[in-house]
Fold this protein.
Amino acid sequence: MRTLAAATGCAIEARALTRNFGTFCALDHLDLMIPHQCIFGLLGPNGAGKSTTIKILTTLLDATSGSATVAGFDVAHKPLEVRRRIGYVPQLLSADGGLTARENLVLSASLYGLRGRLRDERIDEALAFADLEPVAHKLVKTFSGGMIRRLEIAQATLHRPEVLFLDEPTIGLDPVARRTVWGRLLELKADIGMTILLTTHDMEEADYLCDQLAILHRGRLATVGRPAELKRLIGPEATLSDVFVAHSGVCIEEGGHYREIRETRGTAQRLG
Amino acid sequence: MSDFAYATAAVANAEIRKLMRDPTELVSRAVQPVLWLAVFGQVFSKVRGIPTGDIGYLDFMAPGILAQSILFSAIFYGIAIIWERDLGIIHKLLVTPASRVALVLGKGIAAGLRGLIQAVVVYLIAFALHIGIRWDLPAMVGVACAVFLGSCIFATFSLVIACIVKTRERFMGIGQVLTMPLFFASNAIYPIELMPGWLRTIAVANPLTYLVDALRHSMIVGGHGMYTLATSFEVMAAAFLLLLAVATKLYPGLVR
């Protein structure tokens, strides 16, 4: 049975979502309401709680307290129903370099329960969507960063999820590859009506893609709104970076833990 | 086919494809049994200090070396799991609706199939050394089942360790620490009867002992084990199911 969030038009709803790691509070009473068919950006310095939020919403991590629903299902009590309705592109490189593009898609399709002709059709469509048809039988470890990201998005959307989560989707990509990824995400929203939640450090990306965004700082929600509104509140000439600095009180290079930075740099290195 | 079987087969299929593309590890793992059988085994067969019943020492130790080859290969399976975690592959697998048991079992089955390839290598070495191999079908099936199940056990054990230690550096240390005690606290290269009481107790609780015992039953002409074949398989199956349950419980913790 779906919860109230589905009826009220929210694809994602978080109420007082909190996560502690020992004495460290990574996420502190986060409230979020993300409508359907919206591209929502989660911004914040390293260690602000973005990845923790995504991990909880994708059922990878339990919240210490609070609740969240995704596609109408409670992430703590109905994780399987949530998993059937979401796609996820982690910040790390999740396509398997030892497999071909098609084999990666076959694995994802199989784990999402797609079979037979439907599976093959979806894989063909995905390869076309990701513009990878000519290299479908090549090993992914020979791909460029942009190709891998396109493949990962194709893998995560094979089953037509209602909500797609992306953790730093364009980190380490060159400007052309970045634009291509943005184009694919806008297509998914326009053509399939997918709700997309992405985390990013890239203010240009947030400004270009996001219908709404939230800024997290030290695990708390600093502000939320449409990019234009948030900029207007700061000043007539304000940029999104100004909004970011005003609400987080830090420049975006600050903060973060060793592991996060190691993962981010590792991903950037592999993609680049 | 059920969703569970389908997901299990998909994971195993992906693993096997990767192994077939890069068989380096299979080749490097083949070196160790050659050394044990051709060097250690041939020298110790001259000593005649170890009571092996009606069979020669080389024949006695060949099943032990096959089991060792499987153990040493499977016990480092966790390294690949940690590597997959670092790459983000496990994150993606865990947000699918596929059963966690299927994700772990698929890896175990792939390890089992890899073990069968290693068995072929050990058979070739044993054949070259004129070890009395049983070539009848029931014996070959028995060996194949034991090798498959043994590989599943130690690969899943390795996955459990990987889930606990989470880093390659720690895993390498623990892997090294575990393999030799598991090997020496088993009946792989000497009978349990020769062991002191405390070591015998460990050996009886060691799944490798039952793998070696099952192999000794089926692989060698005139070979016989301490336990019945059924007992050995029952203990191995129970060990695998226990490890599968633990690994399934711990596996999602890899991404936290």
About this structure: DSSP finds eleven helices and no strands in chain B.
